[in-house]
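Private note to self, pasted from the team thread so I don't lose it. Backbone tokens:
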């Protein structure tokens, strides 16, 4: 049994709570917009691990507070990965622990592995162009999604002919051959859909993941918390899937 503190109590926070309780854990503290000062109450005396799902502009402050507490943290917040080097330094210098992921769904992390393998396989077939597309609910605060970013970076690492991402700038020009086109949709209550496609004059190859509920993300975050309890260092969830 773990004592888990939740930072962020929106739809994801509530889903994480349900999964944590179902797996026999207890919720030690809930920190949300109306009681942000309560984050200072988190300590090893009452909490084994923190799970954080908030907004990009809140992540840095939350991380600093949790690292000061001496409790490891699992974060599903995205939109901060350009700060990864400084975040890693902060966690290591504090002796703390952080596990992060653009997506804690087991299925999405299987998609990540398929995506990496497919990029390497398609590297020899230059007649295929490549794209990434994602769709989410209209309340999502960042675009493209962190998962789309992860998929894009995996493709760029494995596909020599793609060296950078192009998104909003394609509203006014066509993509260069070396640019990977990343598109997004924000509409209704779409939980999350991600597609990677390779197109040629002859055919199209796609791999995709469609989330039916938030349960998969929440369950993965709890599994990550179970693994992170008592550990220090910086990890990606994909390393344990």
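Design output:
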């Amino acid at each position: 049994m773990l004592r888990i503190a939740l930072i962020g109590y929106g739809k994801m926070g509530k889903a994480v709570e349900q999964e944590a309780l179902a797996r026999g854990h207890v919720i030690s503290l809930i920190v949300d917009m109306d009681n942000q000062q309560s984050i200072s109450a988190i300590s090893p005396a009452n909490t084994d691990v923190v799970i954080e799902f908030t907004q990009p502009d809140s992540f840095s402050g939350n991380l600093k507070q949790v690292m000061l507490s001496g409790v490891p943290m699992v974060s599903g917040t995205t939109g901060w990965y350009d700060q990864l080097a400084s975040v890693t330094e902060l966690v290591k210098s504090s002796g703390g622990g952080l596990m992060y992921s653009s997506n804690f769904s087991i299925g999405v992390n299987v998609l990540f592995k398929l995506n990496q393998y497919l990029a390497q396989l398609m590297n020899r077939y230059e007649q295929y162009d490549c794209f990434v597309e994602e769709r989410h609910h209209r309340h999502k605060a960042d675009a493209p999604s962190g998962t789309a970013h992860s998929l894009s970076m995996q493709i760029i690492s494995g596909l020599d002919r793609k060296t950078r991402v192009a998104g909003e700038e394609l509203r006014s020009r066509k993509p260069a051959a070396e640019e990977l086109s990343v598109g997004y949709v924000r509409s209704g209550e779409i939980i999350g859909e991600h597609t990677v496609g390779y197109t040629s004059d002859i055919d199209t190859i796609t791999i995709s993941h469609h989330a039916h509920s938030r349960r998969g993300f929440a369950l993965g975050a709890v599994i990550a918390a179970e693994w992170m309890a008592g550990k220090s260092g910086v990890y990606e969830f994909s390393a344990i899937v």
